[in-house]
Structure prediction request, 552 residues.
Amino acid sequence: MKGKRWGWIIWFGFLLLLDYTVPYRVLSGVSKFYGAFLFWNLFALTAIASMLVLLWKWRD
Amino acid sequence: MNVSYIIVCVAIYVALATWMAYMSRRGMGAGITEYFLANRTVGGFVAALTYSATTYSAFMMVGLAGLTYRGGVGALGFELTYLSGLVLAVFFAPRFWLVGKRYGYISPAELLGDRYQSRWVAVVTTLVCLIFLIPYAAVQLMGIGILFEGLSGGAIPFWVGLVLATLLAIIWAWIAGLRSVAWTDSLQALIMLVTSVLVLFFVVYRFFGGFGGLFAKLETDYPGWLSVPGPGFFNLKVYIGLTLPWFFFCISNPQVSQRLFIPKSMSAMRRMLGGFLIFGFIYTLVSVMWGFSTKVLNPGLTRADLATPTLLSQPVIPAILALIVMVGILGAAISTIDSILLTLSSMFARDLYRGFKPRASEEMQLRLGKWVIPVISVVAMIFGGLRLGLISILSVAASAGLLMTVPAIFGAFFWKRGTATGAIWSMILGGVVTGFLQFSRIRPLGHWPAIWGGLVCLVTFILISFMTKPPLEKAEEFLGYLEDGLKEKNAL
Prediction:
């Protein structure tokens, strides 16, 4: 359980790193729909999907 | 807009929500757990809607739309970073829920006080929440005042909206505690989402021929609004300063973390968080697109937080649509305020009062809690009446202050060595530093108060905990129980 926990923490930490670096470093010159706007949408959808995977593992 | 339309529309909404609040009393039992937590028996659907309505406030369609108007796409990143912070709830929710049921906790402050074996931890946590949440509630009240004033072209004065929102929050929190709050929240969450989506589609298709048209216009006329730092507001330091406290929002804000005690089962909890994630994603996109639309249609506003009221009061927007959105925003604000009121009153009675009178009966705590609701409301109303600064920045200041409870919360669940003295001083020193920097507007090295306050808070918690004696017996029992419970529930 602890190994899995750390695996997920690293995954979410990686996503968060992308959240700050990609729009400010990679996409700062892209003033288009497919720049930061699209990136942050994809980032959020990936994070949400990852959370839903974890939620659906819970048992009553 | 015609004032009589506004009055009729608000009257219908108030009548419907008040009827729902009264309906929620059916089958209501007695006692403090019943009043403040609906006896921990809330189903997944209602839990998801009350969680959403409590979290999302007037800030979204007024403040976030205003931030988008002022700073561009960075506002989207900021709000979606908050949403991704719900990963903390995925880790913390089963823990809160399990220990809440086992030890009978009513509030997050009570949890901390018991875990660290110190009533002073609960007292200080409550004081921090009172100090920082009252401005947050005040911001919601201000939002309503500004909205009514803007929509009616000044015919409805600012203070009328302020007083109306305060009264409704008191009544809906008072009628049946969490039951009435959760039911009215559910109605309001549905109104918020449906109305905002409908009107956004109307505006985008009516004025731009679709979302492609809106983005084409933005790319041509306001390209800076599609990148960061864009027009300049969202530089990296501001972005970090805004997102850090909001990332921890779901555990630092007691009116939200108290919701982790209420689901009737783990599957209800799953539906609550899953439902909220979907709701939050849609509502964020809608609010940001609303800000973009306003930027293109009304580019010359001097105050960004007037973007939404100004757009709604345009003659080209059909009055009925503007009214619908107004009710959605009113609902968003009140559903947040009444939840804050209920949570603060529970903390006042359960943690502050009982901290000084440990033998106070539950009946007395409940009676006191109910009477504290109007008192806190009036304080928030007076604060809101001062109309301080940009609405969104004030909102973030509140989150920055509440961030100071986060190290103690992490310590409670993940660090046996954490102590009561460490928790208390981390909240006090972190809160003082944050409050001072916020108030003085000093930004050392350009970073926002949350960064410095959070750093002081974290270092203080760790250092003092190492220098003082932890309640190891309680920590072993508490964390041992959790480890077994989490395994059984298959939660991380």
The first helix of chain A runs from residue 2 to 26.
